[in-house]
Amino acid sequence: MASADEQRPGVRPRRTLGRRLDIAARYAFPTTCTMLLMLLTRAPLGLSGQAVLLPAVALSSVWFWSVFRPTGMPPPAVFLIGVLYDLLGWQPIGTGVLVLLLLHGAALRARRPLATGGFLLIWLGFAAAATAAAALEWALTCLLTWRLLPPAPAIFQAVLSASIYPALAIVFARAHRSVANPERA
Amino acid sequence: MGYPPDQDHNVNPSVSDWVLQACATADLQPQACEFFVGATTIPSRRDAARANLPPPMIHLSIPARQALAKLTLPVLIAASFGLMLIGKADTVVAEHARIALDDALAPIYAMLAAPLRQVHDTVADAAGFWDIRSENAQLLEQNTELRRWQSIALALDAENKRLKAELHWVPDNAPSYVTARVVADAGGVYAKAVLLSVGPHHSIRKGEIALDGHGLVGRVTEVGSRVARVLLITDLNSRIPVIMEKSGAHAILVGTNGPLPRLMYWPEGSPPQEGEQIVTSPVANMFPADLPVGTVHYTAGHVPEVVPAASLERLEVVRVFDYGMTGKPPPTPAQPAFDQAY
Fold first, then answer.
1. Backbone dihedral angles phi then psi of residue B186, each to the nearest 5 degrees
2. Chain A within 8 Å of B17 (Cβ-Cβ)?
3. Average pLDDT over residues B299-307
4. Cβ-based neighbours of B210, under 8 Å, separated by 6 or more
5. pLDDT over 90 (residue A56)
6. Which of A12, A39, A51 sits opposite B187 (nearest CB)?
7. Are B245 and B279 in contact (CB under 8 A)?
8. Is there a contact between A91 and B188 (Cβ–Cβ < 8 Å)?
9. Which of A73, A164, B24, B146 is the most buried (most CB within 10 A)?
């Protein structure tokens, strides 16, 4: 790739160590930001039903960055986020990993049609994906703990995920244009 | 190739690299290259993405890189199934990983707790300011009533002491306890549990009993070096032997993951009565006798539920008692249901 870069005409800044670090930090921003937000959802905020914030934040974040900047949210990063999600959420290990990887795959598949439809289409796409994710997570947890769990928390999780997505998307979209943008390095 | 830098750049760099490299070797015109690259990427976003991508760590051939990029997601999905199997086969590993993570995070959560509580109190104060007059009147009334009860309680206490002295009553050993702050929810979506920050040199063990100022909270299920996890009485896996105070009949308190656990398996002829006090039973040596649990409340569908005496939705500080119980240890969330019923 570097050789192709050199063969292309044009003036570009030198790749100093600082600039390389800056670029790397910008690439790492989506993953780091998602993990920190997930840790924050477990702080003692004193909200009832706070446990559902963790899946809502994880799903919204993975969806947003997979649609808008998949280079900053590659599959291995999604895998790590999934492991953290399972550990923090006290659910059977592997369920969150699978759900988030499938969500990431769905977002990658749908990003070209979604990109033309504007925010509303992306939001609707996320609402559908979050509902499917909550249902899959419920089914997997039932299967792995071998008991029928009440479905109400899964419904609440899907509704909350879809509801907080716009708020998170506004903040993420700003970051996407500024701190998470490697071009600004 | 002078495309304006675009914020929304998401391309497959390996493919565009390959095409561009091929074009450069074949000495094609940039326009021709653009045609080929445009077929595989979003053209207006290509340059920006390429210019800033970090160089690859390992130099692989282009087709190998492409194949790797395509394979990553399916391989990781397969790995997630593997993780599920490992988690199912060896629950101890997952439990240790969780407790280790919580051990690392607990000091941070404990540090955040103080400012968050202050914000909470300020908001509550601001809300309470409006009905301060009516609240004051209500408190004065309650105070008079409580003074009356205090005199009754003191008289009963004196009588109790006298009667015990006459009977040569051997008092129970006072249990030792640790007071701990609740720092985080540890239940997730499908369980009800809290995480306690207990300091580095604690003596808490699995199976000890957590109480708040009003009643039973739950039992300790996992212990780390700085944290302890308490499974609440409302959790789906919680089964607690209880006694109904009026009839003295035994029953089992079963958690439902909802706010009110249910009463089950009471003896025929002595159903729970509305408003009856429920206390723990020493049966099976899991709990000491007579810890307050809550009061009976019938639902519209005539199912007896228990309104917990402890304020489980707003737990801030709990006391973890060591009653020296030797019964079956509390369930862990990863075990299947048939192991957990006792």
1. -125, 30
2. yes
3. 90
4. B196, B216, B217, B218, B219, B220, B230, B318, B319, B320, B321
5. yes
6. A51
7. yes
8. yes
9. A73
For tokens 């009471």, what's the residue?
A: B266
**Helix/strand/coil for A69:** coil
Predicted confidence at residue A100, as pLDDT, reads: 95
Report yes or no: B123 at the A interface, CB cutoff 8 Å: no
Q: What is the mean pLDDT of residues B29-39?
A: 36
In three-state secondary structure terms, B341 is coil
Give residue A161's pLDDT band: very low, low, confident or very high (50, 70, 90). very high
* CA–CA dist B238, B243 (Å, integer): 16
Largest Cα span, chain A: 64
pLDDT score recorded for residue A47: 78
> Where do we find the tokens 């006298």?
B162
Chain B residues 126-155 with CB within 8 Å of chain A: none
Length of chain A measured in residues: 185
Measure Cα distances from A135 to A140, A145, A149, A158, B214 in Å.
9, 15, 12, 8, 37
What Cα–Cα distance (Å) separates residue B286 from each residue in A95, B179, B323, B328? Answer: 33, 20, 9, 7
pLDDT at B156: 95
d(CA A181, CA B52): 10
Residues of B in contact with A155 (CB under 8 A): none
pLDDT digits (tens, 9 = 90+) for B135-165: 899 999 999 999 999 999 999 999 999 998 8
